Amino acid sequence: MLKIGVLALQGAVREHIRQIEELGCEAIPVKSVEDLNELNGLILPGGESTTMRKLLDRYNLLEPIRALAAKGIPMFGTCAGLILLAKEIVGYKMPHLGLMDVVVERNSFGRQVDSFEVELSIREIGEDIPAVFIRAPHIVSAGEKVEILAKHEERIVLARDGRFLGCSFHPELTEDTRIMKYFIEMVREYN
């Protein structure tokens, strides 16, 4: 059985765990370096990216997560998780993990009160997929090997860079598990 970790410092952890288990995998809440052992994949959920970075530093998880990536473990970042994965963040000198070859801009779709839900057509995944945007970032630009999977209002909102999947919105806040299933298939591909 595949073991998928969910960084459990902040954000929609339970919702990710529910979808992982619904799709027949073991979900591991990650709160310490020890929790990273024997994972087949890792999800970096939404939350507040600056707070998440402080917590990653406090619990000494930043370098162990980078080491996990160097071993070839697939990772999926949703909303703030996308910001953590990005190699560059508009307006910031340094990235957080700096793993995915994308440039990301924070809060691209407005503030909390501007949150919304739309249905997206997503390449390789399907049609009419619900997407919940809450203070969402977007991908400003992507490296030439990055696959653009979805856009909203001409902004890139879902992309894949090899074993890294980055998403502007919150698929875990819906009942639709197709994006999680896509990530789990990525994990199988690399394990």
TrEMBL record:
GO terms for molecular function: glutaminase activity; pyridoxal 5'-phosphate synthase (glutamine hydrolysing) activity; transferase activity. One of its GO terms (cellular component) is cytosol. The gene is pdxT. This is Pyridoxal 5'-phosphate synthase subunit PdxT. Catalyzes the hydrolysis of glutamine to glutamate and ammonia as part of the biosynthesis of pyridoxal 5'-phosphate. The resulting ammonia molecule is channeled to the active site of PdxS. In the presence of PdxS, forms a dodecamer of heterodimers. Only shows activity in the heterodimer. It comes from the Bacteria. Keywords: Glutamine amidotransferase, Hydrolase, Lyase, Pyridoxal phosphate, Transferase. It catalyses: L-glutamine + H2O = L-glutamate + NH4(+); aldehydo-D-ribose 5-phosphate + D-glyceraldehyde 3-phosphate + L-glutamine = pyridoxal 5'-phosphate + L-glutamate + phosphate + 3 H2O + H(+). Its EC number is 4.3.3.6, 3.5.1.2. It comes from Heyndrickxia shackletonii. The keyword Hydrolase applies. Belongs to the glutaminase PdxT/SNO family. L-glutamine binds at residues 47-49, 106, 134-135. GO terms for biological process: L-glutamine catabolic process; pyridoxal phosphate biosynthetic process; pyridoxine metabolic process. HAMAP family: PdxT (MF_01615). Pathway: Cofactor biosynthesis; pyridoxal 5'-phosphate biosynthesis. The active site is at 79 (nucleophile), 170 (charge relay system), 172 (charge relay system).
